[in-house]
Amino acid sequence: MTVALDSPAAVRAVLDRAFALMDADPEMGPRLRMADVPERFTFEDVGLVVDIRASRPGEPGNLVWVWDAEVDWEPRVRMTMDAEVAVRYFQGRENVPVAIARRRIRAAGDLRAALQLIPITKPVFARFRAFLEAEHPELVA
């Protein structure tokens, strides 16, 4: 099945998998929950916004993500990028500090907190790339 990143539904489906992999990972998920850095990603090229936060007591999983800018929490970090940049990032193929310097990612808020999440999320790169190789090889960077 070929997926184009110009479709909001396709972008959402692919990135939902990246978030689900992080949420379910027995090491990464709890570490992201403990870090508790709410983020908002805006993908202007496809008109999507996703807000992500740590799960709260009584909620299942480690992360909660909502594809809507209307949430009951305030993001500490806001990042705006094209969907292609996000897919490259979750494969470990986009260096966030370099992408920010080159304006492929526009970031605002607590950037220090966001950069501290990068080492925590590194294990998702290989798993997400394996998912893409199996189901969406055209997106492998």
Task: Summarize the structure in short.
With 141 residues, the chain is of the alpha+beta class. It is built from five helices and five strands; from the N terminus they run ααββββααβα.
Our Rg estimate from Cα atoms comes to 14 Å
* Count of individual helical segments: 5
Q: Tell me the name of the CATH class.
A: Alpha Beta
Q: Strand content of the residues, in percent? A: 15-25%
Taking pLDDT < 50 over at least 5 consecutive residues as the criterion, the unreliable ranges are none
Q: Give the H and E element order.
A: HHEEEEHHEH
Residue-averaged pLDDT? 93
Strand line-up of the largest beta sheet: 3-2-1-4-5
Please give the alpha-carbon distance between the first and last residues: 17 Å
Any idea what the shape is? globular
Looking at CATH, the homologous superfamily is: SCP2 sterol-binding domain
Q: Estimate the helix proportion, in percent.
A: 40-55%
- Structural class based on helices, strands and sheet pairing: alpha+beta
Give a written overview of the molecule.
The protein starts with 7 loop residues before the first helix and ends in a 6-residue tail after the last helix. The chain has helices at residues 8-24, 28-35, 83-90, 96-101, 111-135; strands at residues 39-43, 48-54, 63-66, 77-81, 105-109. α1 (8-24) packs parallel to α3, α1 packs across α5 (111-135) and α2 (28-35) runs antiparallel to α5 (111-135). The model has no long low-confidence stretch (mean pLDDT 93). It has a single domain, classed as Nonspecific Lipid-transfer Protein, Chain A (2-Layer Sandwich). By secondary structure, the chain is of the alpha+beta class. Strands 3-2-1-4-5 form a five-stranded mixed β-sheet.
